[in-house]
Specification:
Layout (H helix, E strand, L loop, with lengths): L15 H14 L7 E7 L5 E5 L7 E11 L3 E8 L11 E9 L2 E10 L2 E7 L5 E11 L2 E10 L3 E8 L9 E6 L6 E11 L1
Antiparallel strand pairs: 1-12, 2-11, 3-8, 3-12, 4-7, 4-11, 5-6, 5-10, 8-9, 9-10
């Protein structure tokens, strides 16, 4: 009895372009290690606000790291976003909440609605402030804004907000102090984003 050999068709592997696309997808899926595009360091001293722009509209996550900030007077710190048309969204349509933990005492502040997201309450002059502000696509047309800020009074401030509709995405973030005439006198911000 003889058995005949029937060759099966060979399957070729993925092309180099397909492998690169798979690697890119995997890198973008990793949290915080890769897939991020960083902007340069922005010195805050002398400014009441900074516009961190250049975010592609298809970005799904933005992180702003704050280091060594202090202010010339008492002020809260806020975030507003630039929509897909690169227009600053100032409408009273930001919703959210700030919790301020000082020792064991907790105070809270809500915005329902407000014209910006409060990310730190009543920063005092000459206090060291550090922390992060994160924006992630909440639904197709709005972003969730979360922050965790620490200051020199041993306070921890956590905030969560939802932006108004931004169309297909955001293209920038404005970080600002809410009290006229108060500026940062030290500190840096770095923004990074990923798709």
């Amino acid at each position: 009895m003889s058995f005949g050999f029937v060759p099966l068709p060979l399957k070729s592997g993925p092309t180099a372009a397909e492998v690169q696309a798979l690697i890119g997808t995997a890198l973008n899926a990793q949290d915080g290690k890769t897939g991020w595009v960083s902007g340069g360091v922005v010195n805050l001293a002398g400014n009441n606000f900074v516009d961190l722009v250049g975010i592609p509209v298809e970005a799904n996550a933005v992180q702003i790291s704050l280091q060594g900030i202090s202010t010339t007077g008492t002020s809260s710190m806020y975030v507003q976003v630039f929509n897909a048309s690169q227009t600053l969204v100032t409408a009273s349509a930001y919703y959210g909440y700030l919790n301020n933990l000082a020792g064991t005492a907790v105070t809270s502040f809500s915005q329902n609605p407000g014209n910006a997201c409060i990310v730190a309450g009543s920063l005092l002059a000459a206090n060291f402030v550090t922390g992060d502000v994160e924006l992630t696509r909440h639904i197709e047309t709005s972003f969730l804004v979360k922050s965790m800020i620490f200051d020199g009074l041993n306070r921890k401030m956590d905030a969560g907000h939802v932006t108004p509709s931004v169309g297909t995405g955001i293209t920038g973030v404005r970080l600002f102090l809410g009290t006229a005439g108060v500026n940062w006198d030290a500190g840096q911000a770095v923004m990074r984003w990923r798709k």
